[in-house]
Design goal:
With 185 residues, this protein is an alpha/beta fold. Helix content is 23%, strand content 28%. It contains six helices and seven strands. It has a seven-stranded mixed sheet. Strand 4, helix 5 and strand 5 form a beta-alpha-beta unit. It is globular and about 45 Å long. Bound molecules: S-adenosylmethionine (SAM). S-adenosylmethionine binds next to helix 1 and helix 3.
Length: 185
């Protein structure tokens, strides 16, 4: 068991996480052609479940077997895989939708772009650095996107939505960057 797995298993054992899908996923997933979807760092599978119910065949990848437990028996269109994304490369042109919510691995950026099939959609939302003294954020700066970083990382795609802002559903000054982009054929 590696450090990430130990840390996250502990969290999933001791804390309740929302089971509601992220708003950006419910808002934009319908733009993707139906087919195979990849949920990177799927956690308790809140987004994976939504996508499979919306008609996608979903690979839900996460290092925490405890987080993924909630997806056991979720049906033939939902494939939970316990895997360390530090050691995983996405197969090229495989997915019509890739979702990455509240997880940051810069190493994955090129694989995400290659992993999209032509016409495929990327939905990416994660923590953003902030100067606000009271903002909720991961303690390690490595897990924070810099301003404009997400925008620049995915410029080869056609970016149809981008924002850097506080999450309107929270009251702790939590900042996030959000991007939706299409891989043009
Ligand atoms: C903040 S949670 C977000 C979960 C989910 N995307 C969501 O929106 O609910 C971050 C997730 O990243 C996963 N994670 C952290 N490091 C990882 C790694 N190296 N490989 C795979 N998953 C990892 C954790 O287990 C955790 O489920």
């Amino acid at each position: 068991m590696n450090q990430d797995q130990r840390r996250w298993n502990e969290r999933y054992r001791n804390k309740r996480f929302s089971t509601e899908p992220a708003e950006i996923v419910t808002r934009f997933a319908g733009m993707a052609p139906k087919g195979r979807a990849l949920d990177l760092a799927a956690g308790n599978g809140r987004n994976s479940r939504f996508l499979s119910e919306a008609g996608f065949v979903v690979d839900a990848l996460d290092v925490s077997d405890i987080g993924l437990r909630t997806l056991a028996g979720a049906g033939p269109n939902l494939n939970p895989v316990c895997i360390d994304l530090d050691r995983f490369d996405i197969p090229a042109r495989r997915y019509s939708l890739i979702v990455n919510i509240r997880f940051l691995s810069r190493r994955m950026f090129p694989y995400i772009q290659e992993g999209l099939a032509p016409g495929g959609i990327l939905i990416f939302q994660s923590y953003l650095e902030t100067d606000h003294p009271d903002a909720a954020a991961p303690s390690c700066r490595d897990y924070l996107l810099r301003k404009n970083e997400l925008l620049h990382a995915f410029l080869p795609l056609w970016i149809i939505f981008y924002s850097e802002a506080e999450d309107p559903n929270r009251n702790d000054h939590y900042q996030q960057a959000s991007l939706v982009a299409v891989k043009t054929p």
